[in-house]
Amino acid sequence: xxxxxxxxxxxxxxxxxxxxxxxxxxxxxxxxxxxxxxxxxxxxxxxxxxxxxxxxxxxxxxxxxxxxxxxxxxxxxxxxxxxxxxxxxxxxxxxxxxxxxxxxxxxxxxxxxxxxxxxxxxxxxxxxxxxxxxxxxxxxxxxxxxxxxxxxxxxxxxxxxxxxxxxxxxxxxxxxxxxxxxxxxxxxxxxxxxxxxxxxxxxxxxxxxxxxxxxxxxxxxxxxxxxxxxxxxxxxxxxxxxxxxxxxxxxxxxxxxxxxxxxxxxxxxxxxxxxxxxxxxxxxxxxxxxxxxxxxxxxxxxxxxxxxxxxxxxxxxxxxxxxxxx
Length: 326
What we know:
The chain has helices at 2-16, 37-44, 48-59, 66-79, 83-91, 95-101, 107-121, 125-132, 137-145, 151-165, 169-177, 180-187, 193-207, 228-237, 240-249, 264-279, 290-302, 315-325. The radius of gyration is 27 Å and the shape is elongated. By secondary structure, it is mostly helical. Helix 15 (240-249) runs antiparallel to helix 16 (264-279). The chain has 18 helices and no strands.
C-alpha cells in the first residue's frame, strides 16, 4: 500500500510538471524537496554510499537469514568493483565490520566477506593502505590455515592475499609478521587443487621484480612496490622452494579420486615459480640444496623430450633448471 501511495504521488508530481505558466490550468509544481525521500530514491536511485551502508547493515544483522546476508555482501562486492566506492569503505567505516564477518562461523558469510575484501584491495593502492590500517593479516592467515575453513574460504583468503600483497612491500612485511608464509607453504599441499594453484601463482607473482628497478638482483632498493627480495628471503627461511619442487615431483592426491593424474595447471604454475626464483639467483653464490637438485633432475627427466614446452618454458628457462640440477 505504501508503495502504491508513493507511485500516485510520483504521478501527481509528474503531471504538475507537464503544464506551463500560460496554461489556464497551471498550478505551480511542488519543490522536489517536499516529496517523500523514498520517492526521490525511486526516481534517482540511492547513492552508492547509502547502498553500501545498507548492505553492510543487513550483512551484520544476525536476525536476518543467511541468504539475505550473503546477498547483501554480494551486492556490496558489485558496488566496490568501482575504485571510488572501494576507497569510500574507509570513510564509511566499513572495513572493521567486513573483516569481522570474515571470521563468521557461517562459512558462506565468511567466504563472501573475504570476497568483498579481495575485490576492494585489487589494483587499488589507496584501498590497500586503508586495509592495512586494520591489521588484517592475522584474520586472513587464519582463514587460509584453519582446519575449520572450507575450500571456498581458503580460496577466497588467497584472493585477498593476491590483491593485498602484490606490488606492496609494506603489506608483505606485515604478512611476514603475521607468520603468513607458513600458511602459504601449507597451501601448496592443500586438499583442494584450486587453493594449490592460487598459492603457486601468488608465490611467483611476489618473486617478480619491480619493473622500475634496473636490476632484479639489486639489494639496495627501497621501492614500495618491490616484493621479490622479501619473498626470496621467506622462501629460503621456510624451505618453500623444496615444497614447490616436491609438490610437482610427488604431488599429494586431491579431490575424491586419489589416483588422479597430476594437475597440469598446478604443475605449470609451480614450475614457473621455481624458474622465477632460480633466475633471480643469477650471479649469487647460493646452493639450492641436494633435495631440490634431486627434484629438478626428476622434472628434467620427465620433460626432456619437449624441454619444458608443456610448462610454457622458453629454451633459456629450461637451461636455468638444468644448471641448478647439477
